[in-house]
Design brief:
alpha/beta; D-Maltodextrin-Binding Protein, domain 2; twelve-stranded mixed β-sheet; 12 strands
Length: 322
């Protein structure tokens, strides 16, 4: 992929009465970050990251201008990278693994040019349900939303059903978006929804403030079995008080968001942006709650695809890779 370059020309009259100005050319490298919808975590965090990169990255005298671009999240973002349509993107670890390996929703369509720049923050798997539903098995015969077919959420529901010895036919699948699912739960037209996002999630906060909910735990032997074959599903705890009515800690899963790119990104750019991120996490932590969960120490967690050589060089310099 050819990196986007643009030259900005500015002219100035250097002395009163001069007939010609002096042109100064400044060449910039444009660097895009594909994120998600404006109501999720990807887009606002991506915007903050773009500012960090723009303020802290220079390449052989060229200024890097980074921008966060709205998108359709993980599955679509993996496709954008595969086509070389953007320089980088946020992709959930499970989706990135499936895309590179050509499995699940990417069966027969492996994207082998995907590369990782590093792990970001854990996205909490929240199985938001009507009150009275206490465990995963309670969902049999009930309506559960999982996003559009082929999406990361849809695949996650399939993985969970398989882990608990169930099939898709055992539930009434609903393909509503996060916001639509929240409204349906509020109106009593949906029993449960899988929402994987940084917690607390604004839409779930809003729901819990006006409607009783329960967060169904995802733990025990079924989950351990799932993690044996798909280790990018990490164990986490949704703390009591995260949402109104959630009075006890809830054991569940988390999937790290990965900052990904493609193999054609020049090594010097990959190195520079990776360095800019992990050496400015304090800045991100001040402006976004999820920035507090990004660290150099966790930069390789849940990364199952090859690192970009530029990112690998940075991690070796820092001793993260020996």
């Amino acid at each position: 992929m050819k990196i986007r370059l643009k030259t900005f020309l500015t002219s100035a009259v250097v002395a009163a009465g001069m007939l010609a100005g002096v042109a100064h050319a400044e060449e910039r490298v444009f660097f895009g970050i594909a994120t998600g919808g404006t109501g999720g975590t990807y887009y606002p965090l991506g915007g903050m990251l773009a500012q960090v990169l723009s303020n802290n990255t220079a390449l052989d005298g060229k200024k890097l201008s980074a921008t966060a671009e709205t998108g359709n999240a993980s599955v679509a973002n993996a496709g954008l990278l595969g086509r070389g349509a953007i320089e980088s993107a946020f992709v959930a670890a499970d989706v990135l693994d499936a895309a590179y390996a050509g499995k699940n929703q990417f069966e027969g369509k492996a994207i082998k040019n995907l590369r990782a720049l590093g792990a970001l923050y854990p996205e909490t798997v929240q199985l938001v349900a009507q009150p009275g539903l206490k465990k995963f098995e309670d969902l049999k015969g009930l309506s559960v939303s999982s996003g559009s077919p082929g999406s990361g959420q849809w695949q996650l529901l399939g993985d969970l059903l398989d882990a608990y010895g169930m099939k898709r036919e055992d539930v009434k699948e609903d393909y509503s978006s996060f916001s639509q699912s929240v409204e349906k739960i509020k109106d009593g037209n949906l029993d449960a929804s899988l929402i994987t996002a940084g917690s607390p999630t604004a839409s779930v906060v809003e729901l819990s403030n006006g409607h009783d909910i329960n967060i169904i735990p995802l733990s025990g032997p079924a989950i351990k079995k799932l993690q044996e074959t798909q280790p990018y599903y990490a164990t986490t705890v949704l703390k009591a008080g995260t949402y109104k009515g959630v009075d006890k800690d809830v054991e569940t899963l988390a999937v790290r968001a990965i900052w990904a790119t493609h193999a054609d990104l020049p090594e010097d750019i990959a190195y520079a942006v990776t360095k800019a991120l992990y050496e400015n996490v304090d800045t991100l932590a001040k402006v976004h709650v999820k920035g507090k969960e990004i660290s150099l120490e966790t930069a390789l967690q849940s990364v199952s695809i090859p690192l970009h050589p530029g990112a690998e060089r940075y991690f070796r310099e820092k001793g993260i890779i020996k």
